[in-house]
Every structure is written in structure tokens, then in C-alpha cells.
């Protein structure tokens, strides 16, 4: 199946998972989301790491996820505002990728805690966090592009 009409429901089984242009677009979108999430998430973790404030790991990670979501929405809104009105850009940024952002944030923070044993940034953990944050939502982002009727060309 090379094309999906917007009125058809696309299931995971009948989806064309070999569409190079869609994978490239999904990867591009995911990278922008990763950048936005990383700014808030890693900035929060770094703040607590440097300041020595003794919050429990779950509290730091919860705040990091929240801040990552906020900065990702802000960055996507800024990018989209070049193509549409600011209000519509904000609504689009929230609606198009909120599930993706949550999955990304959770993956990054689970990796951080699993590798470092806490809320810590090290040169070793950051690339692993980014890889997990990129790969976790990527299939969902691909599916969203295909489910909205984008076809392979």
C-alpha cells in the first residue's frame, strides 16, 4: 500500500513501514522535538546536579520532564509560527506531538537513572539519553505522518 487516504484508518499491520521520505520527515521532526525536550530536561537535571539541592530523584525527574515538555512546545511553536499565526502554531505544537514528547522524556530519564543511578548528567550518559529519546518516539512519529494521509512519493 503506497498511499493512504485521510478517511481510511491505517493500522500498524497494513502500514507501509518502508517509506524513505516519511522516515526522513519523521526523523527531522523527532530531532527538533529532541532538541526542545533536551533543553528543559537536561537543564533541570544540570541545575540540581550543580546546585546540590537535595531533592529526591523522582522529584527532579518529574520536574525535568515537565520542563522538557515546556521547552519542546515553545521551540515547536516558534518554528511553526513562521508558517502560521502564533495561536495556531501553539495549538499545533501541542496537538501534533505531545505523546511523542512524553515518550521521549520518559525514555531519556529512565536511561539516565539506569546508567547513573540518579539524576546526573555525564559525558557517557548524554549520548545514550539522546539515542533513547530519539528512537523511542520515532516509529510513532512515522505512523502519525502516515496515518494523516502522507504518501510515499
Walkthrough of the structure:
The chain has 153 residues and is mainly α. The protein has one domain. It contains 5 helices and no strands. Helix 2 runs antiparallel to helix 3 and helix 3 packs across helix 4. The longest helix has 32 residues. The N terminus is likely disordered.
Summarize this structure as a short list of keywords or feature phrases.
single chain, 153 residues, mainly alpha, 5 helices, 71% helix, disordered N terminus
Overall structural class, as computed from helix and strand content, comes to: mainly alpha
Number of strands: 0
Could you give the distance between the termini? 12 Å
Helix content: over 70%
- The parts where pLDDT drops under 50 for at least 5 residues are 1-7
Beta-strand portion reads: under 5%
Mean pLDDT: 88
Tally of helical segments: 5
Number of domains as seen in the coordinates: 1
Layout of helices and strands:
Blueprint: H1 20-51, H2 57-80, H3 86-116, H4 125-135, H5 138-147
Helix pairs in contact: 1-2, 1-3, 1-5, 2-3, 3-4
Summary of the model, kept short:
The protein has 153 residues and is an all-alpha fold.
